[in-house]
């Protein structure tokens, strides 16, 4: 086994241990609860990293889509699709957790707040990205159309 593979396994193991420690610390060793919102403040310990992760994943989609347009190399299309998939998954979870927090804090499931509504549009846009990818059969056409949506979709992020 090469040194590179050993390092990947070592860093993956270290990251897993640190993530588990952080998860345990989130619920047991954190700041005092704010009396007005109580235990639901702990949603933010997941909510904010999910927002950052989805933004980075959509950023990967943007960069890979631009790289595909410039080079016409299909590997960039794969990178863009992976970024969009991760961004969509984390973005959907982000939206869901935000709505749950909003219900427990403000007593309503949905308000037409501009940030909330614009992120719903982002999720719908990247959902359309995958509908398009599933409906176009030719790989080069699929990559070209997906790159256009990947670039335009990031404007909303």
Rg, Å, rounded: 19 Å
Morphology call: flat
Query: What is the domain tally?
Result: 2
Reported for the largest beta sheet, the result is: none
Strand content: under 5%
Q: Can you put this structure into words, describing what you see?
A:
By secondary structure, the protein is mostly helical. It is 80% helix and 0% strand. It has 5 helices and no strands. It starts with a helix and ends with a helix. The model has no long low-confidence stretch (mean pLDDT 84).
Question: Which key terms come to mind for this protein?
Answer:
157 residues, mainly alpha, 2 domains, 5 helices, flat
Summarize the structure.
The chain is built from five helices and no strands.
